[in-house]
Structure formats: structure tokens, C-alpha cells
Amino acid sequence: MTRLTRQDLEAARDRLVPDVVADGLRVLFCGINPGLMTAATGHHFARPGNRFWPVLHLSGFTPRQLRPAEQRELLSYGLGITNVVARATARADELSAEEYREGGRLLAAKVTRLRPHWLAVVGVTAYRAAFDDRKARVGPQERVIGGTRVWVLPNPSGLNAHWTAATMAEEFARLREAAEG
């Protein structure tokens, strides 16, 4: 991959990144919003310190660790990726409360249309803001969108030091077992 400059990353600000989706997925993973590296490359969870791809493999969702550029391969495993908020920013704290609420509304409509078995929101703070559920915790939620169950996973960002790759993989594996059941 070509090394991206600071100017490349800044040019990606507010860019939209296409979802990796299909009807009837086993699990639709939902990030907070694309980071600048994701927007610059067009590949979800592209920042090198992000633990999404390693954790997805460690938890048993994929038979090997995929690279961000291989994101479309997720569809062959019944998995997909979207975001609560579509626009790219350097940090999630650049998003407004209204963007989260509108993102939650649009996400619910997308889930209703695509009918995945599970929606997995990666980031409890984003889930709380998008769905106005201040008491939500990591794990399965009572909320159902259409016929889709909802699970909140820890944010795989390298900034989330409360969770190690191993403890995240345990939580992701709980979801995988529920999705297979």
C-alpha cells in the first residue's frame, strides 16, 4: 500500500465509505464512523492500530486474519460492515449528538431493509448516543430492529485500552456463538 501523507488524510475528511452489505447477513458489524485512514483507502477499520481484523479472526468469525483491503470477503462468511455515522472524521468526538441520533435512525432503516440476523455495534458509547439508551452495556441488548437482534461490542480502536485483543475476542466469540445458534 502507498504510504499516505497528512494531506492525503485531511483530504479524506467528510468522505463517505461504501458499506460492505448484502441482504440477510448473519452479522452486520457497525462502526462509529469512518476514520480518515478508512476514508482515504476506502477500507473499513484500516488504521494500523485498529484491532477489528485481528479480533474478528481470534474470535472465530474468519478462518484467517483478513486485511482491510479484503473486506468484501466478509460477505462470503455472512458478515458485513456499516457505520452509525457515514462521514469520515479524525476522531469520533468530532460528531455531534444530532449526527449520532440521525445515524441511529438511518441505521435502523438500513437494518430493517437488509434484515441481518444480528446487528453488532462496536462501541457502547456510540450505541448509547445513536439509540438514546444510556444504560446499555457490552453484550446482547433487549432492542430488536425488525427481526434483527442487537449486540454491543467493545470498540476495537487502539485507543480503547480497557479491552485487550484477547478480551475483545472473547466478547466477539460470544456473539459468534449466538449467531451460529
TrEMBL record:
Tell me one Pfam family matched here: UDG
Q: Which keywords annotate this record? A: DNA damage, DNA repair, Glycosidase, Hydrolase
Q: Which InterPro entries match?
A: MUG/TDG, Uracil-DNA_glycosylase-like, Uracil-DNA_glycosylase-like_sf
Q: GO terms for molecular function, please?
A: hydrolase activity, acting on glycosyl bonds
* Domain Uracil-DNA glycosylase-like, first and last residues per copy: 18-179
What's the EC number here? Answer: 3.2.2.28
Leader sequence range is none
* Database matches in CDD domains: UDG-F2_TDG_MUG
Organism domain of life: Bacteria
| The protein's name in its UniProt record | G/U mismatch-specific DNA glycosylase
Species of provenance: Streptomyces thermocoprophilus
